Amino acid sequence: MRRLLPAIASLLAVAGLLSALPFVLSAYNVSLAARVGIFFVAILGLNILTGYTGQISIGHGAFMAIGGYTTAVMSQDHHTNLVVTMLMAFAICFVLGLILGLPALRLSGVYLALATFALAVSVPQLPLKWSKFLGGRDGVQTSRTVSHVWLYGAAWAASAILFVLAWLILRGRVGRAFRAVRDSEIAAVASGIELPVYKTLAFGISAAYAGVAGSLLVLATNGFAEPSEFGIVLSLQLLVGAAVAGLGSLWGILAGAAFVGLLPAVSSGVPVIGSSHGRDVVFGAAVVLVMLLLPDGFAGLLKRLRRLARA
Amino acid sequence: MAALESSPRPSLRRRGAALGGVVPPVSLLLVAGAAGLLVGCLRSEVFAQLTVQGLALGAVYGSLALALVLVYRATRVVNFAQGELAMATTYVAWQLIQWGLSYWEAFFATLAIAFVLGTVLEVALVRPVQQRSVIGAVIVTVGLFILIDGVVNWVWGGEFKYMPSPFGTKIYHVGGVSIARLYPGMLAVVLVSVVLVWALFRFTKLGLGMRAAAFRPAESALVGVRVDWMLAIGWGLAAVLGAVAGLMAEPSQFFLEPTLMQPILVYAFAAAVLGGLDSPAGAVVGGLVIGVSLNLVVQYVPAISSELQAPFAFAVLVGVLLLKPTGLFGRREVRRV
Fold first, then answer.
1. Any A CB within 8 A of B115 CB
2. What pTM does this model have?
3. How many domains does chain B have?
């Protein structure tokens, strides 16, 4: 228990700070902070899969698209409560993640990266094909739009709940199994871990997280779910966020989410290249630099600092 | 898992077979497919047109797939930025033409620039992370993807750009089938560059060194091959092939935009996996197969419209990985415990 105290104290401090933010920030900044929360959820999910179970995915934007469309379609066609649609997105993406995790059982390393990349490119094409149901290029809009503060609250409440859930999953038996699979599949099987069960489970959980993030993202864009929103770049951003956060650690995720969520907005204020396109230059360059200088991401940096402080 | 259980010996024998020639059932399959295409072409003009067009597009996919394979063989990295790199070099060509160069002058100048760019990227960015982990290397190329995309958008903007057609607008009429000169032209340019690259690997000392460096880095270093130079040159050559793919893809899309190569990259991934990720010949054959089958499937299978091309390529990719992870021509990898 004593070892947990600093962790819990810092979590409570972060939570307190976050709940005070909407009272001091402008509406625009609240919406930015909500965006960070959305990325927090998605990166948390991706980290469970890539960081803890060692299965790379460049396709989580696809699950975000599925979650987002779930919210938009349910809200428009059936006027379902938005919070309920998030739960539905969670459930649907969990099941789809399990199903898509099955073929992923036979793939690893670069092959899994290739397959998930193709998934990310494919899914946004589906609304164009079934345009009557999914709105085609123009997308589907929810029947109700939400305020910035509502969104901020929803995003960070979801983040908090899902963070605790992830922590509970990862600290116990399941988490140990995940890490064993990551470190060596052969050793994991030899010590009695059912590889298919845990690999698909990791896929399901992580897809479900992405689904919730997707429905929040749709709400953040005035309730519009459209194909262009869930393009390949979104998937790439998630992976980048997870890498910046540090794979296999929960402590850097806030930094990873802030990096992905805020850097485009911050860098558009930079002189010379601060145009709407210049921000991608900054973003890409920052990614490459971070990977070269901080191979373990922000979590690795924290660990190094802690070691320095102790020495 | 199958790779784990196989002992190294059958795979060594298989390696000999893979080097000596194509595995017979695969070549039979391909010959049968080609015969089917020929019969179809003789019976229907639309079919013939689609096949020629598919072959030309397939050559483009194959060329990009070959670039991916070269990089994969040299450094065991899948370069997710390969398509964006090709797109960027196509913009360079456009710029050179704007500055007054003729199309073919710009073409060759662009290839030279692409070579330098590829080499520099390998030395500066990939080498430091390559040894670390698959995920690290993938993320660096992903960062490169975003970076190149941003640079192109920033320098040239997102609007469509038009390039002069390299092959004019002439249309050939062969037995009732009209074929734009563009398509045989694309096919010829890509195939010539592929053959040149193959000859470089097969007949020159440099190519020998590059093959050695890719297969056995430590041993080739011992016999005096500059392994790091070879890997950098490999990336440069891949960038050149990518540039050829980009330049030939542009006329088939009719205009130049920053997302030019994104769908093509997916088709190239599918092609590379279909051929076997470490087989150069497989990449080209895979590209042609994917190009032709995409074109024909969209025309003749009612359920699959052009929006479903990328999902179709995805299905091929996953299907191949599940049924035959080594692809048509790939070698089985043996993992040590």
1. no
2. 0.85
3. 1
